[in-house]
Write a structure and sequence with these properties.
By secondary structure, the chain is of the alpha+beta class. It contains five helices and 32 strands. It has two domains: about 130 residues, Arc Repressor Mutant, subunit A; about 280 residues, Kelch-type beta propeller (Neuraminidase, 6 Propeller). A hairpin with a 5-residue loop joins strand 1 and strand 2.
Length: about 475
Amino acid sequence: MAEPFDDYLEPPTNTELSERELEILKLLATGLSNKEIASQLFLSINTVKVHLRNIFAKLGVQSRTEATLIAIQRGYVTVPGPAAANGEATSASEPIGAGDQTPVATPDVIAPAPLPAIEIEPALPIKRRLVLIGLAVIALGLAVIAVPRGAAQSESGCSPFIETCELQGPGASVNQTDWQPAGQMSVARGRLAAAALDSRLVAIGGETASGITGLVEIWDANQQQWIIGQNKPTPVANVGAVVLNGQIIVPGGYTASGAPTASVEAYDVLSDVWTSLAALPAPRFAYALATDNDKVYLFGGWDGQGYANTTFIYDPKANRWTTGAPLPIGRGFAGAALLNDALYVVGGYADDHEFDRCDRYVPREDRWEACAPMSVARGGLSLVAIGGRLYAIGGGWTGYLTFNERYDPSTDSWSVAPSPFTGQWRGMGAAQIGNGIYTLGGWNGQYLNVLERYSPFPFSIYVPATTK
């Protein structure tokens, strides 16, 4: 599972573990959680996660289990075996390379000051620890065999904020369904914002192979062609967009410097002009966004320190933001949409897992209520309301997703809906034009420039008007 690293540090340029990284690796190998490691070393949980990211990168591994196995193989951690004749325990695994693989300690550039020496002891009895390590090895082997063809592998140690890791498997594959290709953007990108105004679909910002962009592309569904618009003044990724009073509002975002911003910018499609609006009460990106009754609602997201549960409400008449009842659970990378006078916030990601939950916000009463969860957890999804139903599209950091999901409010239940891709597919833009859902770009092991269209209503029925 991808870790929510929040330090925005550059990837390590060497493969040698520092003293602090060795300490953390030894504790990880005993089965301690991030919280327990942080407590023992007097560090914050986020700092531990930063170190783990660097450890995984230096060791070239994708999971805690793999890191533990390498730690044992290289002799960083000694697994006690049967007692020797002199009463001392023997090692169950010798270092690879007999000294050549022993890392040279380098100065710890993250910890502010040296900490007292800490006794590194297994958190569990020796016999139990050996059993758990054995089971972990077996589970790892079974996982490699059992992963379905086309499944995206886990991206442990990668930041959920940018696509820094390549999938180890073949990634997602195209799934021939009722989805149809409608065109291609000029640049492949994910984590972008998308909004529809009349027959025009606007793709804004996002992340490309070259980094964060402010690119604006406009798909004219009538003319079946792309038009390049004025770049967004502040290039950002991990953003959303909504239409309000004829303008497209894009709050906050993840900037090229790797930090959240509070700036809010509005785009007038007809005049091709950007303007600035009142800033958010606090910086945010990876939020969920929707509108109701001529107001903008921004839920959760990352604030630079953690996943927030805040509800920000924008009133265009006063050009100011206020706060509403907080989300039941703070999270980011969720989807939001208006359906039947309620705003739904579905799925999402926080800490080290995705969510299947569904929460419903009633604006007129400023309160939350629960709705039925999806069948699978989805982070980085899009949510679109059409035809009296919700469509949860894509998502996933670790899940093998072969379908989208459709929510029926009359039965408070989810059902399977087709998807154009199998595997991981996240960070796409999505919006409704007419009786169709359009999706733009995203990430499925690589950045995508696709434009896909899906119609929940394959047949239109004409009912003639009658007069008395």
